[in-house]
Amino acid sequence: GSEHYLGLFRYRPSDGEPLEGFDLDYKCGEVDCDEDGNIFVVDKTTFKWHVYKPDGSEYAGSPVGDQTSDNIHRGISVSNDGSKVYVISETEGTVYAWSGSITEDGVDYEKEENLIKGLGHASGGVEVRDDGKILVGNDPGSRVFGFHADHTPWGTLSGGNPSLVDPRGTVSSEDGKILYVICKSTTPMVQKWRRTEEPTAASTWKFYME
């Protein structure tokens, strides 16, 4: 999104070559895609999110959400198969969860129980990994929470050297052995966390992969 232009810019992943984008009529937050190239866009200021075909046309049944205003949404993430969608609300300090599907008739999603709430104001991003695990940045608490695909707790990332402070977005390497965490107010701005099989007293890694 852009402060002056309401729309999406698109680029080819292999070489960064610009692709044709498309206009929007609302201020968007983050964007994510499923494995079929469907585009999920969260509305920045209204409680709803949109789903577009790869060509930029919006699906029937989109947007999803109760469309109440005065709610700031920071991020959105979707599972590879498009069956799970998560939206993080900065205003509510909550990660909302939906389950559903995309068919030739359009999108059909139902709201589930919240993934997590009580994160605090201005919390960071949410990411669904390829294996279905979910990572949530808790900016005020300087932690990243992990959840299994069934929403049971998986672990917590904290501490480190330099310490993890104000985490926003979190991205995993393809093999899940490394986490990259974007931090709002630390140096380096992107921290790299490596998997350890078992935590030890001397280890700075409090969050480790199974």
Describe the overall structure.
This protein has 210 residues and is mainly β. The protein is 0% helix and 42% strand. A hairpin with a 5-residue loop joins strand 6 and strand 7.
N-to-C span: 36 Å
Q: Strand-and-helix sequence, N→C? A: EEEEEEEEEEEEEEEE
- Overall pLDDT confidence: 83
Per DSSP, what share of the residues sits in E-state strands of 2 or more residues?
35-45%
Number of strands: 16
What would a concise description of this structure say?
With 210 residues, the chain is mainly β. Helix content is 0%, strand content 42%.
Topology, please?
Blueprint: E1 7-11, E2 18-23, E3 28-33, E4 39-43, E5 49-52, E6 73-78, E7 84-89, E8 94-103, E9 106-111, E10 126-128, E11 134-138, E12 143-147, E13 153-157, E14 167-172, E15 178-183, E16 190-194
Antiparallel strand pairs: 1-2, 3-4, 4-5, 6-7, 7-8, 8-9, 10-11, 11-12, 12-13, 14-15, 15-16
Characteristic terms for this protein:
single chain, 210 residues, mainly beta, four-stranded antiparallel sheet, 0% helix, 42% strand, globular, disordered C terminus
